[in-house]
Fold:
Amino acid sequence: MSDERPTAAELRRGLTVEIVQGDQDVRSSDTEPIIGEIASVYGDELEGPQVKLKSGVVGHVQSVVADE
Structure:
């Protein structure tokens, strides 16, 4: 994961991102990111922009996954 998180303005529906679910401590070393496509962007927060994935999972974006 990159040390620089994207801002909410840089995110859009359809991007593939790594998130940490909202109820997890994003600073914990044993937190495993979830990778999925964005359905909704809620806005910037200290832990990273909060989004809802197409799967319905809500969390904070840690990085954008590059297209292969």
Observations:
- The mean pLDDT is 85.
